[in-house]
Amino acid sequence: MSTDGPRSSRAESGANTPHAGISAGLIPAKVRALFRRLRRLAGGRHKVSSSAAFWDAQQVAGEDYVYWLALPEVVRWVNRRVSGRPEIWHLSWFLLSPESRTPVNRALSIGCGTGNLEREVIRHGSAQHMDAIDVSERSVERAKEAAAGQGYSGRISYHVADAVSWLKAAAAGPGYDLVFFHASLHHVENLEEVLRMTASCLRGTPGLLYIDEYVGPSRDQWAAEHLGYASSMYGRIPREYRRSDFLAPPVAFDDPTEMIRSAEILNVLRAYFEILEYKPYYGNVVMPLVCGIPRAAIEQPAVREVIGKAMELEDFLIEKSLLDPLYAVVVAKPRR
C-alpha cells in the first residue's frame, strides 16, 4: 500500500486577476481575458521557479510537520471512504479496478515528487512504461534513485519539467493511456490549459485521468469558518504539544503555487472531462489539526487521543452533510 506524502508534485502556474489599477467592471470581457493571458505569460515562469526552489529546499532541510496521511490510523480511516476497505489505499483501489487492471503501454505522472506513485503503478503491473515530471530537480533526483533501487529505471523515465511545456510536446506524440495527478493539481494556476491539454493527450485505452487531490479553499479563501471544528479540537491538546496558541490555516505560503486555484479544480475539470468516479475523503477537521502539531509531539498519547476524537467528529459532520470536502479522488475520461 502506498502512503505517498503531501507533495507528489508541483506543476505549472500563472496569474488570474484583471489589471489592479482599473475597475474590472469597466473592462470588456475579451480584454480582461487578454490581461489574464498576458499575466500568465509574464508571471507563470517566476512562480514555477519559485515553487521549484521551495520544494528543492524541503528535500534538503527536512520538515517539522507530519502529513496527516502519514498517520496509519488516519490512512485506514480515509481508505474506507475511497476503497471501502481500510487496508486498500486509494491508488491501489484504482489500479485494481476493472477499467485499469489490464496493463497499459504508456502512463504519465504530472508532479511526481519523489516518485511513490510511479513505483506503485509499476509494482502493480499496471503500466509497461511511465513518464513522470516535476519542477523540483532534487525531488526528481530522489525519485530516480528510489526507482533504480527497486529495479524500475528501465520502466520509469523521470524529467524536470512543468506541466504546460511537457504536455505541449506530448501533444505531437502518441499520447498516453493513463494520466495521474497526485497532490499536484492544486499547484496549477492555469487549470484550463493544463486540463485541456491533458484531455488531448489521453488517446489510448482506457484513456483515463486519475486525480487524488486537495480541492478545498484556495490559498486566499481560508477563513475562521473553515478552521472552526479543527480549532475546537486543537484546544484540547496540551499547549506544550501544539505549534501555537491558535490553529493557523494549513497553507504553505512560502510556495507561491500552494492551493493557487484549488477551489476551482472540480468545476474546471468538468469542462474537459466526464467524471466517472468521485470519492471525497474530506479531511476538514483532521488535516488542519495535524498541521498544527510539531513532529516531536505527534506520538504523545494525549495528541493521538485528540486525533482519534477528531476523526469521530468528522465522521459525524459528514453524516450530517455539514462539510464540503477538502480532498477527493476522481476518475474521469475526456469529453470528445
Kindly list the characteristics that best describe this protein:
336 residues, alpha/beta, Rossmann fold, seven-stranded mixed β-sheet, 11 helices, 7 strands, 40% helix, globular, disordered N terminus
Write down the CATH topology: Rossmann fold
Shape: globular
Beta-strand residue fraction: 5-15%
C-alpha end-to-end distance: 34 Å
Written overview of the protein:
The structure is a single chain. By secondary structure, the protein is an alpha/beta fold. It has one domain (about 55-335): Vaccinia Virus protein VP39 (Rossmann fold), CATH 3.40.50.150. It has eleven helices and seven strands. The protein has helices at about 30-60, 70-80, 90-95, 115-125, 135-150, 165-170, 190-200, 225-235, 265-270, 285-290, 300-320, and strands spanning about 105-110, 125-135, 155-160, 180, 210-215, 275-280, 325-335. A seven-stranded mixed sheet has the order 3-2-1-4-5-7-6. Helix 6 (about 165-170) packs parallel to helix 7. The radius of gyration is 20 Å and the shape is globular. Mean pLDDT is about 85; it is low at about 1-45 and about 50-60.
Quick recap of the structure?
With 336 residues, the chain is of the alpha/beta class. It has helices at 29-61, 72-82, 90-95, 116-123, 137-149, 163-170, 191-201, 224-234, 265-272, 286-291, 301-319; strands spanning 104-110, 127-134, 156-160, 178-182, 208-214, 273-282, 327-334.
Topology:
Elements: H1 29-61, H2 72-82, H3 90-95, E1 104-110, H4 116-123, E2 127-134, H5 137-149, E3 156-160, H6 163-170, E4 178-182, H7 191-201, E5 208-214, H8 224-234, H9 265-272, E6 273-282, H10 286-291, H11 301-319, E7 327-334
Parallel strand pairs: 1-2, 1-4, 2-3, 4-5
Antiparallel strand pairs: 5-7, 6-7
Helix pairs in contact: 6-7, 7-9, 8-11
